[in-house]
Known about the structure:
Layout: H1 2-38, E1 47-53, H2 55-64, H3 66-70, E2 74-80, H4 86-92, E3 98-103, H5 104-114, E4 118-126, E5 130-133, E6 147-151, H6 154-166, E7 171-172, E8 185-187, E9 193-197, H7 202-205, E10 211-214, H8 216-221, E11 228-231, H9 237-241, E12 244-249, H10 256-265, H11 268-277, E13 283-284
Parallel strand pairs: 1-2, 1-3, 6-9, 6-10
Antiparallel strand pairs: 3-12, 4-12, 4-13, 5-10, 5-11, 7-8
Amino acid sequence: MKHTIKLVAASLALALAFTACGSSASSSAPAASSAASSAPASSGTSVTLKVGASPAPHAEILEQIKPLLAEQGINLEIVQFDDYVLPNTALEDGDLDANYFQHQPYLTDFNEKNGTHIVSIGSIHFEPLGLYAGKTASLESIPDGAVIGIPSDNTNGARALQLLAANGLLTLKDGVGLSATELDIAENPHNIKIKALEAAQLPASLPDLDFAVINGNYAVGAKIADKVIATEDKDSEAAQTFANILCVREGNESRPELKALLAALQSDTVRDYINASYEGVVVPVF
């Protein structure tokens, strides 16, 4: 009987030991996950950053810094978006740690209209609008009544008109700046007809136009970046205003791994990659 009691007691002790181990592992798992999400890259804990981006050039640029971040214990997960709304709503909802696709005027407008709390932590690059040839090969041979496509949204439409003016195709009223519209055309010696189209449609519409002013990201996506005739100057008002930025949720600006992400995006590695890859339609601003 004593022998049996000893066996039962031993079995109970062993069972309790295993139960305690399981309970300890289960209760500590969330804490470990929480630490990983906010730990400095130097802590030795692997950190995963989910960053939303447009496919080109943003996601392509992010790919270049994966090794830099991996050396610091940061795993970069790039989530691609084909629109300009979901990357911000996903960031606001906490499904992303950061996003990289927009400029400050767009972000300011988005926050005001949607009640979101997204902030910029740094500028990375500028995508100059470019002038591309369609049916007419060069500006020197522009015909009277030429049709030039420009983006239909107000912001990029104004930039497009400024680019046409900078290349002597038309003259705008003094002081209109980045608020210019077709009504602000003061002189039009070639009787140019402006055709406003959705920005994403301009590359495909190029064969039906004499020229088109196209956003850098769409030119890259359409693989026509090397055919650009003229672009906005990197020191222009547009370049200072419309630099593409790295964004995070308000309150996360000081997270060490997000600071590391910004430093990597503003590194020589990225500057060299941009300058070598995009034929001047993407320009580093750091």
